[in-house]
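Researcher: Next entry in the queue.
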Amino acid sequence: MASLKATQIFDLAKEGDGRAIEVLRYVARIVANMITDISLLLNLDMVILGGGVGIHPSLCRETDHLLQRHEFARPVLRSSGLGTEAQLLGAIALGLRRVEAKLIP
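Model: Structure for this entry, 105 residues:
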């Protein structure tokens, strides 16, 4: 049995595959619950998802649908403009900040 990447499963869901739709809804529910919890804790107005999985249109759409049904926390959900390089660019930025802090006390 071949393994599928999350983005491939989300693509299958978009095409109407029943099992893939179940997986997409399950993942979206987990993401929406996490966003809701963090939003209530930090009083966030907006959450930005990044990376290959986070910016997948099907996941974003389903997660946003679930977020809008919540009574108390309804942050705006956006996809990062950094696309699949969000994690890499974030890591580079953190590394550069540490180097700068060491060079300029």
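Model: The two ends are 55 Å apart (CA to CA).
Researcher: Noted, moving on.
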